[in-house]
Specification:
alpha/beta, single chain, five-stranded mixed beta barrel
Length: 241
């Protein structure tokens, strides 16, 4: 005799669809974990690669390429952009970006100087920038991803040389500067003598978290099967005394 009651077609369909959806979501999270691991590897490889000149890099480099560039020119005075609410080493602070004018170019490059912690909730005091011609080196990468834009940065409404941002939008920054800005940012190489922290990593969800979400979805799939059998098992009738 079978230990299962005959399930309705709706119960079977609902269970099958649920299992397929949960398994598909779990596989998607595993794929995302693999993509993030590949991204981190490419970042690490780029940081250790040789330096290329800026003129050799096309204006729209491949999405999966993060070249390390040497850029000659000068910093543009009078404007600093602070990406607010950042954290590093358990401290809250800002990521500092400044415009840089490459030699023989009419466009600007936004340069990431690094992280500085806040001082009692106030923005940190920024070290002075080099004046005159200089050469900077770093990774040429896409700007940090933009999440939900709650009202925008409102850069034009802010006064003074330092402007606070909640996300990096190169078009908005270009409009604020009145100059065209290249589509990527240059994250400067680490410097032991600098006050800035520059252990750059992509601002993405770590692979371990994707795997944790995958395990969660696979657990939901297993739970759906277990619940199906529990609800459709035959209950033993009590024996007559």
């Amino acid at each position: 005799m079978s230990f299962m009651r005959r399930p309705t077609w709706f119960a079977v369909a609902l269970t099958v669809v649920g299992v397929l959806v949960f398994v598909r979501l779990g596989m998607w999270q595993l794929d995302r974990a693999g993509e993030k691991e590949d991204l981190l590897r490419r970042y690490a490889a780029a940081a250790a690669a040789g330096v290329e000149t800026f003129g050799d890099i096309p204006e729209t480099p491949p999405v999966d390429a993060y070249p390390r560039l040497a850029l000659h020119g000068h910093f543009v005075p009078g404007r600093v952009y602070l990406l607010d609410d950042q954290s590093h080493g358990g401290r809250v602070g800002v990521l500092v970006y400044v415009p840089f004018a490459p030699a023989r170019s009419d466009r600007l490059v936004l340069v990431g100087l690094g992280f500085l912690p806040k001082d009692g909730g106030a923005n940190p005091h920024l070290p002075p920038l080099p004046s005159g011609d200089t050469t900077v080196r770093g990774l040429y990468v896409p700007p940090p991803g933009v999440g939900v834009r709650m009202g925008g940065d409102r850069l034009p409404e802010q006064r003074g040389p330092e402007k606070t941002m909640v996300y990096v939008d190169l078009k908005d920054i270009g409009a604020d500067l009145g100059r065209l800005v290249y589509p990527r940012v240059l994250l400067l190489d680490a410097d032991p003598g600098s006050l800035y922290a520059r252990d750059w990593t992509p601002a993405v969800m770590p692979p371990a978290r994707h795997r944790a979400y995958a395990f969660q979805w696979f657990t939901f799939a297993l739970a759906a099967v277990v619940i199906f059998f529990i609800l459709h098992r035959k209950r033993r009738r009590p024996t007559d005394r």
